[in-house]
Amino acid sequence: MHEFTNPSMTKAMLNPTPQSVQPRTDRLPDPYRAEARVLAERLAALDGALDWAAVQARAEPWVRAVRENPPPFWAMERLLTEYPISSHEGLALMRLAEALLRVPDTETAIALTADQLGRADFEGASDAVIARLSSAAIALSKRWLPAEGDTPGLVARLGARSVVAATLRAVQLLGRQFVLGEDIEDALSRAEAGRRVHPTLRHSFDMLGEGARTEADAAHYLQSYRQALEAIARRADPMRHPSLNDGLSIKLSALHPRYEPAQHERVMRELVPRVWTLCERAAQASLNLTIDAEEVERLELSLDVFEALASRVAREYPLWEGLGLALQAYQTRAVELIDEVAAIARRHGVRLMCRLVKGAYWDSEIKRAQELGLPSYPVFTRKHRTDVGYLACARALLEADDVVFAQFATHNAGTIAAMLQMARQRGSTRFELQRLHGMGEGVYREVLRDVDAGCRVYAPVGAHRDLLAYLVRRLLENGANSSFVHQLADESVGMDALLESPIGRCASEDGEPAFALPARLFGAVRPNSEGLDPTVAAHRERLFDAWRQVSVPRVPEAQSGDVALAAQHAATAFDAWNHRPVAERAAILRRAADDMQAQLPPLCALLVAEARKTWPDAIAEVREAIDFLRYYATEAERLLAPVELPGPTGERNTLRLHGRGAWVCISPWNFPLAIFTGQVAAALVTGNTVLAKPAEQTPAIAQEAVRLLHAAGVPAEVLQLLHGPGETVGAALVAEPAVAGVAFTGSTPVAKAIQRALAAKDGPIVPLIAETGGVNAMLVDSSALPEQVADAVVQSAFRSAGQRCSALRLLCVHESIADGVIDMVRGAAQALVVGDPADLATDVGPLIDAEAFDGVARHLARLRTTARALLPEGEDATTHTVAPQLFEIRHVAEASQEIFGPVLQVLRWRGDPKDVIAQVNALGYGLTLGLQTRIDSRALALAAQARAGNVYVNRNTIGAVVGVQPFGGEGLSGTGPKAGGPHYLPRFCAEQTLTINTTAAGGNVALFSA
Ligand SMILES: Cc1cc2nc3c(=O)[nH]c(=O)nc-3n(C[C@H](O)[C@H](O)[C@H](O)COP(=O)(O)OP(=O)(O)OC[C@H]3O[C@@H](n4cnc5c(N)ncnc54)[C@H](O)[C@@H]3O)c2cc1C
User: Fold this and answer.
1) How far, CA to CA in Å, does 192 sit from each of 358, 736, 901?
2) Residue 357 CA to ligand 1 centre (angstroms)
3) Does the annotation mark 771 as catalytic?
4) Nearest CA to ligand 1 atom 20
5) Is 805 labeled as catalytic in the residue annotation?
6) Rounded-to-integer distance, Cα 760 and Cα 768, Å
7) SS3 for 882?
8) Judging by DSSP bridges, how do beta strands 651-659 and 989-997 pair with one another?
9) DSSP code of 782?
10) Rounded to an integer, what distance in angstroms lies between the CA atom of residue 1006 and that of residue 990?
11) Closest residue (by CA) to atom 35 of ligand 1?
């Protein structure tokens, strides 16, 4: 039975079994199984399957021949061998490749080039074409490029332009290595030319572009796929098997702006028909249409899409065998995925294709798992384990060759030789080899002389602008020390090392992850809080189980007299609590943290029910509360340990920190668990007693936190909860004579009122820690990546319905890219789902209550008369929801008020970015600031100029992590110190020095015995 205290919350809005959260079971095993276990399974599957000496003997001549007679593009591979991405030069090259081509204005291009090349040293680069070009650009830059901030003279500017032009050219050449043509006709002609040399060569064209942010992007990509299919179809032979025709590779993320597991229903409804139109055309022309593999989190979703397509193929084009899926061997579920694809084929009576790759998103998979505190990594953590995974997958694919045509995509000579050996043993010929355009050319030249197998080239097509994300992945691959192509180009890597058996290597180690699991991110200092991954059914089920049982209890309000009595108890309890060893208090906090961790799903459910949080926000909030408890426990033990101070002989001087007395902690509804727990934990662990007043809207979650802390060992009178209105209960608490300090998070006006009330009291002057709001800005220059900006903006401005003090309020975009960025933000905002927070598909839940809604509505009415509205109105007074709103304004000063909702103001800037920061500083707030630029020196200079507590570069501006990004601002945004940082606890403490004259009892023994 749900019992809602929040008057604006209706059961209809909080549907306990919303449609899109109906349990969907996963087809594949848990992606977070222990790596050692998965590896053992893979090794067992390969037991006795390969004669590695024969593999090596087969691959050696290929390698030797490539090294002796390098292919045309070898120069680039050599360049990246000389300058791996781990070097300044390699990194500079990658950064320039990623950004320079898209920068529209000369000023920024000069600044970017100077910034990156200024720190790189290409002197003495090899004299191959591209290397020479890059060297020349770098050498020139040394003389001509201005340092960021200098005003270059005319001659120097002319020089800088030339250097930028040369660098641009070098980067274009770099890009051209990986792109077959600027459009499909161009690419088809080049493919034809290639076939004159290798008649059996086939291509899978890839229309560059991925990750549509808007419906318009998706429509554009769909159109470009359609055009490409038409062009390929025109030259294909419909009577041939798809393996003998050219084909197309597509990315589902390009075809839908919300290709995400949480949007499952919508993806199936909207995306599948789009992809089907492509399937139809491919089927009619007998082409291979392969769905590229993207991030692990989308795997289950792509399987559902794939099966929907396969079932329709079975009905409408049963003879077509060209529908394909790419599989990543670095995934711990890859073999099971192959089994599932084969099962789909058998279920529907169709033949399918499977491209086996190792995987191109390895670093981002590792980062995501760490950020979300997941139980393990969904990918292998050592390169040779991925190789073993690949071989196990290859075997599984060959075993399924009655229904699956295997496409082995790798540039690794050892992997190719091993896979060929397995195919021969099985007598299978139903497979082809694949390589990327611009990679592995030398190896394949040799392999195809030796082997009678089909070979398909994955051939990206598109303009330079669309190449960037792809190019970065290729540079990472070519530049990584562990990669085969990198080692092949490095003659110092001997044959045995290059062709070492990955199976042998795995067998000689324990299979444990190569680096700490997410839970051990902070090493021995403290455990990291653990999260849940709602894209995994078992994890979702834990949340929904909790949801089915959640109830929001009514919390009794404090009555008149309760505050005074509580203050009395708190004062009386202080001495005993303060005198308990800090280690005991820290242990209590750690116990509470462990209990909270165990209770994560019910706490999340309570946050959704009471505070109207979406599930991902709820998970992040519980994790933050856990982190606060553990962080402050550790910090207290460090800070409260007595410190011996130096002094004259004959006396001992010690500095000690201890509690001040009874603290009042007043927390807001927008982080009713994390901020509440953070304030309370900091006060408690430093020896204070606490009178905690939660926000009126969210007392139940606070009550639950208090219950956990009491259960962990905090005595009842040491932590007391007093629920009630700020004007009465809050004011009475602040007015209590015995109060030793106040920690407050909320609005600036209330913080000022508390400050005045404290100042008006007789007695001691007590500290006030106030964290208040902000008008947070993000400055975007023309080197920024619009897609990254759009993601960061949408998350920062609209997640949590904009009800975070860190939320983005003002976006300042350089005029040269403003149109595109604003369009993208607008489109991405429109693709968000506004609604019931209990529904996993919801991105933007309701505002907390009618008062908050009315406040935002008033601001919207004002903005609609003073600014240019860029999105349709979307307020609903019954549900208190507000669809994301975007307004264009002309001056920073127009955004002087904090609007606590999903409302973003945007302006275009030109000239010096420092002037924009100066105007933002002049608003008087100082909480968060976002900078989007690829010019590192600019980011550092602007961050130094900014009066903001938290500056984020090239990412979103929300979700500060305890101990990683201590949170809090300056000016109108608060007093500091930062919560979750090393300076927070001392503010809760009084200090004492103890000086003991050690000679008083006799002589100076220490001096005599020195
Ligand atoms: C035709 C073709 C199509 C492709 N399509 C896709 C696709 O749809 N999706 C996709 O993701 N990729 C795709 N790729 C890219 C592919 O993932 C990489 O090219 C491939 O991983 C390179 O493998 P290799 O055997 O050539 O090189 P190798 O050097 O033998 O292997 C490199 C791979 O090892 C893995 N690796 C590196 N370090 C580690 C580590 N510490 N722990 C574990 N693993 C590690 C990485 O996945 C890396 O890519 C495609 C490649 C080809 C050739």
Assistant:
1) 28, 85, 56
2) 6
3) yes
4) 358
5) yes
6) 14
7) strand
8) antiparallel
9) T
10) 31
11) 383
Residue in the structure block whose two tokens are 């908050």? 852
pLDDT of residue 16: 45
CB 278 within 8 A of CB 272: no
Q: Which residues, 6+ apart, have CB-to-CB distance to 273 below 8 Å? A: none
Residues of the chain with pLDDT under 70: 1-23, 73-83, 119-160, 163
Of all protein residues, the one whose alpha carbon is nearest to atom 21 of ligand 1 is 358
Residues 243, 434: contact at Cβ < 8 Å?
A: no
Q: Do 486 and 465 meet the contact criterion of CB atoms below 8 Å apart? A: no
**Residues in the ligand 1 pocket, defined by CB under 6 Å:** 292-293, 326, 328, 330, 355, 357-362, 380-383, 385-387, 409-412, 415, 434-436, 458, 477, 482-484
| H or E stretch covering 811 | strand 808-814
pLDDT given for residue 741 in this prediction: 98
DSSP symbol at 844: B
Separation CA 833–CA 773 (nearest Å) = 26
Res 143: pLDDT: 46
SS3 909: strand
Residue 10: what residue type?
T
Whether the CB-CB separation of 621 and 671 falls below 8 Å is answered with: yes
DSSP per-residue codes, 49-111: T--HHHHHHHHHHHHHHHHHS--TTHHHHHHHHHS-TTSHHHHHHHHHHHHGGG--SHHHHHH
Strands of the sheet with 651-659, listed across from one edge: 643-645, 651-659, 989-997
Atom of ligand 1 nearest to the CA of 477: 49
Q: What is the DSSP string of 689-757?
A: EEEEE--TT-HHHHHHHHHHHHHHT--TTTEEE--S-IIIIIHHHHH-TTEEEEEEES-HHHHHHHHHH
Question: In the prediction, which pLDDT does 197 show?
Answer: 82
CA distance 949 to 968: 6
Report CA 232 to chain centroid distance, whole Å. 37
Residues sharing a CB contact under 8 Å with residue 931, sequence separation 6 or more, in sequence order: 778, 779, 938, 939, 942, 943, 951, 952, 953, 954
Determine the Cα–Cα distance for residues 567 and 552; give it in Å rounded to an integer: 27
Half-sphere exposure of 922 (CA within 13 A, CB side): 11
Which residue is listed with tokens 């707030």? Answer: 925
| The two structure tokens encoding residue 953 | 């570069």
Contacts of 626 (CB under 8 A, 6+ apart): 529, 593, 596, 597
88 C-alpha to ligand 1 centroid (Å): 24
* Rounded Cα distance, 763 and 265, in Å: 62
Helix (H) or strand (E) holding 635: helix 615-639
H/E/C letters for each residue in 662-688? EEEEECCCCCCCHHHHHHHHHHHHCCC
The closest alpha carbon to 414, from 498, 330, 477, belongs to 498
Closest CA to 737 of 799, 691, 803: 691
Encoding tokens for residue 125? Answer: 């680069």
Question: Cα(349)–Cα(346) distance, rounded to whole angstroms?
Answer: 5
The set of residues, in sequence order, having a beta carbon less than 8 Å from that of 179 and lying 6+ positions away, is 208, 437, 438, 460, 461, 462, 467
Catalytic residue among 455, 604, 805, 989: 805
Q: 861, 850 in Cβ contact below 8 A?
A: no
Cβ atoms within 10 Å, residue 894? 15
CA distance 490 to 481: 10
Using CA atoms, how far residue 763 sits from 125, 572, 735, 738, 739, in Å, is 73, 18, 11, 9, 10
User: Which residue type sits at 626?
Assistant: I
| CA 245–ligand 1 middle distance (angstroms) | 24
Ligand 1 center from residue 358 Cα (angstroms): 4
933, 917 Cβ separation under 8 angstroms:
no
